[in-house]
Amino acid sequence: MAIAIKTPQEIEKMRASGAILRKVHQAVEQAVKPGATTMDMERVAEATIKELGAKPAFKGYNDYPACLCTSVNNEVIHGIPSAKRVLQEGDIVSVDCGVILDGYYSDAAMTYAVGQISAETRKLLEVTEASLRQAIEAVQVGNTLGDVGAAVQEMCEAEGFGVVRDFVGHGIGKSMHEDPQVPNYGKRGKGTKLKAGMVLAIEPMINAGSADVKVLKDGWTAVTVDGSMSAHFEHTVAVTKDGPLVLTR
């Protein structure tokens, strides 16, 4: 496993990429409402990325057809935007997006409520997002990837939620997916030690029910096996001697 250590200059370039990605998410969030389609969100994302002078990281990646992944309700990740997928009151939609600026990637995901959602679903979103914050706090020089994964796993499993094992976070930089893999589970003190200059895409994917998932016939969309709701939050985070630096916030 060859983990690329980024220079401070490279991290600043990734932060500039992340700043654009943050604006894309802000624009897409405005399009999330009952009656909108996931393709409406895709069009907003594509226009915003172009307007801000970046390139979409996902479109064309392994032949993926869109700038966004839009995963609704029991879809975990990699849902493909569609003009036929109409958002309804009470839905949730996980929006994953990446951009490339000056050769450097950034990657972030948010799960948005569509209108009013149930208290149970609201809790899933709040706990998943809180687990990401806790994982980011564990991004300290000398800590391990096990510390990062355990931060997510402990919080989410304590609430009875399923922590997806089939998909994990990843290193990121001049490529979308670099070493190391960043699981959302683990044992504290175990795994690769964190060093200044590593940059990680940390992305809890948490199900309201079982952790089990399956991929649909489109070859992309992963769904919960039991039909339960799923939430997804992600930030691109640099390891620095002064602690975690979130590049997509």
From TrEMBL:
Residues annotated as binding a divalent metal cation 2: 107, 170, 203, 234
Keyword Protease: yes
Species per Swiss-Prot/TrEMBL record: Terriglobus roseus
EC number(s) from the headed UniProt entry: 3.4.11.18
Annotated keywords: Aminopeptidase, Hydrolase, Metal-binding, Protease
Subunit structure: Monomer.
Annotated family: Belongs to the peptidase M24A family. Methionine aminopeptidase type 1 subfamily.
UniProt-annotated binding residues for a divalent metal cation 1: 96, 107, 234
Xref: PROSITE patterns: MAP_1
Gene Ontology molecular function, alphabetical: initiator methionyl aminopeptidase activity; metal ion binding; metalloaminopeptidase activity
Name the UniProt record assigns to this protein: Methionine aminopeptidase
UniProt xrefs under Gene3D superfamilies: Creatinase/methionine aminopeptidase superfamily
